[in-house]
Write a structure and sequence with these properties.
The chain is of the alpha+beta class. About 45% of the residues lie in helices and about 20% in strands. It has a domain of about 100 residues. The protein has a six-stranded antiparallel β-sheet with strand order 2-1-4-5-8-9. Strands 13-19-20-3-21 form a five-stranded parallel β-sheet, sandwiched between helices. A three-stranded antiparallel β-sheet has the order 10-11-12. Strand 16 and strand 17 form a beta hairpin.
Length: about 475
């Protein structure tokens, strides 16, 4: 399911936008303050069930038109309830009384103080093809609290704080909600039609702050720990390589254990396979192995099938070699996805980096070497720390990595200001790189940018919020 259009009414109380998406890649542009990034977050919140974002956002109505139907999210504001709330707080001491209002009903409060800390007197109303669902912020927060309470390692540690009793990490309520993947339990308490609306797609949001990633919180309040994203992604790629090797081992063990049985089976007929064809296929397999060895996906000492020629194949071995070939193709197929991604990742970066080259390694994931012309041995001696890359180079590596490895098939990729820290030439090349990546991952992308260099010759993909504001387009 891809979004065909979004209509946003009274964003910040000011803007009415109609955004029509028509291609694999769409570009949202406008001056600062028009809500480019907000448009991305509105989409991301829909597919991640982050309805807290909608409660915090100033708007009156959002309409999503998709391939499966039209969903409208609107706010019901209760002025009368605001007055009741004011009268109540004026005539009672909140130190003595523990009540709050929801839908004009007085409800006794419990220890879950989060639900009324940021009280907002409105509902979210969801309408979809004849269905309707009304959600209050307090109800949604209580459901989230219930979900957190069922996670074995989490305990409530304060008014808005939770602690992981194993790691002693302390997290704020809303921060914890963003960090955990709660899409499935949230979907389970929503009406089926609303839960299913967002199920068909994965949304991945690449934010403007990309170089740091938050890790475990300190046991001391308000202390966050961060690591360089580039270090994290090098380790992630190493894990991807390990997993692909494990998948290869599993299918290899399965095929090898049944090889004699299948070889002697009546179904193993190779009468139509020539010796020349066997040699041709062996050479293709060996070529595939060499490609995988280049990125350390396969060990360097793997097989030498290219030494086999048609002359030294006896007739009795044709069926054996044919079955061996079929099995080997199935085994190596397990590496197709990781090879395709690593090959594109390294080729994009190696065309951009000056005097440096990316290397793929099963122990390091990826690393960089310094290159100097006419000095063959220099590469072996000058491995760079990832932190030695410039800010622009790190931005490029992190951005391309996220797009290639973190974007799932049929997902919507939301990219906020891809131009940050990138050289003008890299900005001009970005959309061409993005097109290759989205085609490979069968994904769609929506970009928010200020940069005319990013847009380049692709002005037909642009949605200009300033023009919509001026001319109502």
């Amino acid at each position: 399911m891809f979004i065909k259009s979004i209509s946003i009414k009274k964003l910040f109380g000011l803007f009415d936008y109609n955004l029509n998406f028509k291609d694999e890649i769409n570009i949202i542009t406008a001056p600062n303050g028009y809500g480019k990034t907000i448009c991305l977050k509105i989409i991301h919140s829909l597919f991640t069930y982050d309805y807290l974002y909608y409660f915090n956002l100033d708007f009156s109505e959002i309409i999503f038109e998709t391939e499966s139907g039209t969903l409208k999210i609107s706010k019901d504001i209760f002025k009368e309830e605001v007055n009741k709330k004011k009268r109540f707080t004026q005539s009672h001491s909140l130190d003595d009384e523990f009540f709050y209002f929801e839908n004009s009903i007085i409800i006794e409060n419990n220890e879950d103080d989060e639900v009324d800390e940021d009280y907002r007197p409105f509902n979210l109303r969801f309408n979809f093809e004849g269905y309707e669902y009304v959600l209050t912020e307090s109800k949604f927060k209580r459901q989230l609290i219930n979900i957190l309470s069922e996670i074995s390692n989490l305990r409530k540690a304060g008014r808005n704080e939770w602690i992981n009793i194993k790691t002693r990490e302390i997290s704020g309520f809303e921060q914890l909600i963003k960090e955990l993947d709660l899409t499935k339990p949230i979907r389970n308490f929503l009406p089926e039609w609303l839960g299913n609306f967002s199920t068909g797609h994965t949304s991945y949001f690449i934010q403007d702050q990309r170089l740091l990633k938050r890790i475990n919180k300190s046991p001391h309040k308000n202390l966050n720990s961060y690591v360089q994203a580039i270090d994290t992604y090098a380790k992630e790629l190493k894990n991807h390589l390990i997993q692909s090797s494990l998948d290869f081992s599993v299918i290899s063990q399965d095929l090898d254990s049944t090889f004699p049985q299948r070889l002697l089976s009546k179904d193993n007929s190779s009468t139509n396979v020539s010796k020349e064809k066997i040699v041709e296929e062996l050479n293709k397999v060996q070529g595939n192995r060499e490609k995988l060895k280049k990125f350390d996906i396969l060990p360097k000492n793997t097989s030498v099938d290219s030494l086999i020629t048609a002359k030294n194949i006896d007739d009795i071995y044709v069926s054996v070699l044919n079955l061996y070939l079929n099995d080997t193709k199935l085994k190596l197929k397990k590496f197709d996805d990781i090879y395709k991604k690593i090959n594109l990742f390294s080729s994009i970066l190696n065309t951009k980096l000056s005097f440096k080259k990316i290397k793929i390694d099963s122990e390091k994931g990826f690393y960089f070497i310094r290159q100097i012309e006419n000095n063959i041995d220099y590469e072996k001696e000058h491995i760079l720390n990832l932190s030695q890359l410039s800010s622009g180079e790190q931005h490029q590596v992190v951005l391309i990595y996220e797009l290639i490895f973190n974007t799932k098939e049929d997902s919507i990729v939301l990219i906020d200001e891809p131009e940050i820290s990138l050289h003008v030439v890299w900005q001009e090349q970005f959309l061409d790189d993005l097109k290759m990546i989205t085609e490979m991952n069968k994904a769609k992308a929506i970009i928010a940018t200020h940069s005319p260099q990013i847009i380049g010759d692709y002005w037909d993909l642009v949605i200009d919020l300033e023009e919509i504001r001026k001319f109502g387009l």
